Amino acid sequence: MARPPLIASPAAVEPSAPAAPLPLEGAFDQFTIGFDRRDRERVLEIWDGILRGQQWSEGEWVGRFEEAWSAWNGLPAVAFGSWAGGAMAALEFAGVRGETVLCPSNTFMATPFAVLQAGGRVEFVDCNREDLCMSFADFERKVAEHRPRAAVLVHIGGHIAFDSERIAELCRAEGIFLIEDCAHAHGASWGERKPGQFGDAGVYSFYATKTISTGEGGALVSGDPDLVEFGRAFRNYGKPDYSVEGLNFRMNEFTAALAAVQTERLDEIVAWKNAVAREQLDPRYERRLQLPDGMTSGLYKYVVFEPIERSTGKVYDQPCHRLMGSSVDLPNTDWVAENHWCVPLYYRPAGPAGGD
Ligand SMILES: Cc1ncc(COP(=O)(O)O)c(C=O)c1O
User: Fold this and answer.
1) How far is the CA of 80 from the centre of ligand 1 (A)?
2) What is d(CA 53, CA 67) in angstroms, rounded to the nearest whole number?
3) How far apart are CA 174 and CA 193, in angstroms?
4) Cis ω before 352 (30° cut-off from 0)
5) Is the CB of 251 under 6 A from ligand 1?
6) Whole-number Å distance between alpha carbons of 127 and 138
7) How big is the CA angle at 154 (ends 114 and 207), to the nearest 5 degrees?
8) Is the pLDDT of residue 117 over 50?
9) 212 lines ligand 1 (CB under 6 A)
């Protein structure tokens, strides 16, 4: 069912044009930011209004973007200048200083580094070969071994980690604060559930390669009103009462406007990528990552378990535990690093949506 647009267009700005059909050329070419060219004029007009309005930060667009993201994600959202800001807020809130935090090794170094910056100790957990994400079996072992204060579950590649619910259940039972790293997971769903809805918090990145990109940007989502309030203070030097020792992790108005317009396109971008994947890629790649019934991937990456000619490479070719010189044994993580590849798939429909 189509959702009405959340972003009330300023009077002078036309609403976004309707969906284009599915001409597929361009989807396998070189990297392309998933920006729909039909939104160009709209973004420029909003930016012009911001330029003239004299409020380039802490204005209305951050709130509009947060509403739009929240409507998609089903949780209150707090905009940040990057994933890192949102992650630091969640880790501080969880109280990880001096405590152990479980984290997968098959992820970007941002994940363990954020834990270290927040004063936590990282213990790495192995992944599954099927989904590239944290394994419940190893997670359960590491919980018993390390008694962690918190854990970070990373949804690698654009789908939701297959063991999310089991991991979340164990965290609830053991009082472990669970943060979902949703940096790849824009547009994903599992039945009615969206990334960030399994644990205590989810954190997105809108870095330049992501499915929804603002160049730089991030968002924290959580159903916990105390964390949402903490996040708002944390990104803004603890304002208004300075009881939270935050720094500047604010998103500016130009970025927020771009993010708000992009968010309206999220469902369309993901539907387009999925249609291309089903029609064009699935018949070619039998040894592809297979999703459980009811899950939709945002297809940040199209992952296969066979070497291919035109690959964008690996999601990660060096696991974090190797980069950090850890001797922990994570056989599936090492296997995944050796045995997966990504097929190029970029949102670039032909015609006005994709043309320059
Ligand atoms: C899994 C993962 N976590 C965290 C980040 C960090 O995001 P940001 O650069 O917005 O801080 C990224 C960015 O690439 C990522 O892929």
Assistant:
1) 13
2) 21
3) 23
4) no
5) no
6) 8
7) 65
8) yes
9) no
* pLDDT score of 348: 86
Do 143 and 163 form a contact (C-beta atoms < 8 A)?
no
191 CB-near residues (< 8 Å, 6+ apart): 294, 295
Tokens of 80: 């940040």
287-292: list long-range contacts, CB under 8 Å, 24+ apart: 289/130, 289/131, 289/132, 289/157, 289/159, 289/340, 290/130, 291/159, 292/162, 292/190
Q: State which of 105, 113, 186, 207 you would mutate to test the pocket of ligand 1, scoring each by most atoms of that ligand within 8 A of its C-beta.
A: 207
Q: Which residue's CA is the closest to the ligand 1 atom numbered 12? A: 183
pLDDT tens digits along 212-248: 999 999 999 999 999 999 999 999 999 999 999 999 9
**Confidence class for position 30, pLDDT limits 50, 70, 90:** confident
The per-type count for the chain, helices as H runs and strands as E runs, is 10, 11
- How does pLDDT run across 31-74, given as a tens digit for each residue? 889 899 999 999 999 999 999 999 999 999 999 999 999 999 99
Closest CA to 249 of 82, 117, 118: 82
Q: Measure the CA–CA gap between 199 and 75, rounded to whole angstroms.
A: 12
Q: How confident is the model at residue 19 (pLDDT cuts 50, 70, 90)?
A: very low
Per domain, the residue ranges of the chain are 49-258
The closest of 103, 105, 157, 165 to 130, measured between CA atoms, is 157
DSSP SS3 for 339: helix
Thinking of the domain 49-258, which architecture would CATH place it in?
A: 3-Layer(aba) Sandwich (3.40)
**What is d(CA 291, CA 130) in angstroms, rounded to the nearest whole number?**
9
Nearest protein CA to atom 4 of ligand 1, as residue:
110
Sequence letter at residue 93: F
